[in-house]
Amino acid sequence: MRWELSFKNYPSYHQLMRLDKPIGIYLLLWPTLWALWIASFGVPHWHYLLVFTAGVVLMRSAGCVINDYADRHYDGHVERTALRPIPAGKVSPTEALQLFFVLIIASFLLVLTLDKEVIFLSIGALLLASAYPFMKRYTHFPQIVLGAAFSWAIPMSFMAVQADLPIEVWILYLANITWTVAYDTYYAMVDKDDDLKIGVKSTAIAFGKNDLLVIAMLQLSTLWLFAQLHVYLHWHWPMTFALAAVATLFLKQLWNCRQRDKTQCFKAFLDNHYVGLIIFLGLFVEYWLY
């Protein structure tokens, strides 16, 4: 394979990695910070903060690159994605693969600064990130794979800090999966008509007319799982207020999307950044005060 990456084409790589659209970084970063704050009782070591934050940016970028490579024969037929770098001819498929491997190698070098148990867990992150883009061809539930991928930093964070995977890891992991499937279903609702035409599968298609009902059930499950953590970890009023605020945001999203307007569905997806932020602020104040 001939080396095709070029610094001259960085603006197109920047777009391919979605660095101009950081919502994915936020949605991956907040659960990572939740885990670091809980695992370290509110005082995470600077090394872990640096490694995991940089890892979020690199792995989210790698995920976008491999997603566009996997969708290169589909994106040109979808209005929202037709101008992405690969279908627009700005980046070749070979360049995309090479950029993906560069990002993965950079991520792995970061992980090498952590314990061997975390290095072992990082293999799961790579497999999930690589598999997700191809799942939409085989299952109507690729969002579950995305949720697993976006949640994998949670066990990695606990393993790095505590060298253990206690029960709260898996409660938080499940909470993040249900939240991710909910917000990415909003995202899939935007592309539903195009996906039906080109044969791409999603939860928005699978849930059909019950899409908002299932989203509500997923959001309720997220709140219930956080309520279990609230009791198990003996949280106080900061997390109570945070979860109440999150519940309010969930209700607002459902109400605004009641007509399934694409603009509102996409806005609901974007607004989940504030869900993650509010939970993090609740955890920050919780462990600062208690």
Automatic annotation (TrEMBL):
A Pfam family per the record: UbiA
Cofactor needs: Mg(2+)
Gene3D superfamilies given in the database record: UbiA prenyltransferase (1.10.357.140)
Gene Ontology CC: plasma membrane
Biological process (GO), any one: ubiquinone biosynthetic process
Keyword ATP-binding on entry: no
Main location: membrane
Swiss-Prot/TrEMBL catalytic activity: all-trans-octaprenyl diphosphate + 4-hydroxybenzoate = 4-hydroxy-3-(all-trans-octaprenyl)benzoate + diphosphate
Keywords, alphabetical: Cell inner membrane, Cell membrane, Magnesium, Membrane, Transferase, Transmembrane, Transmembrane helix, Ubiquinone biosynthesis
Protein name: 4-hydroxybenzoate octaprenyltransferase
The species this protein was found in: Psychrosphaera haliotis
Gene expressing this chain: ubiA
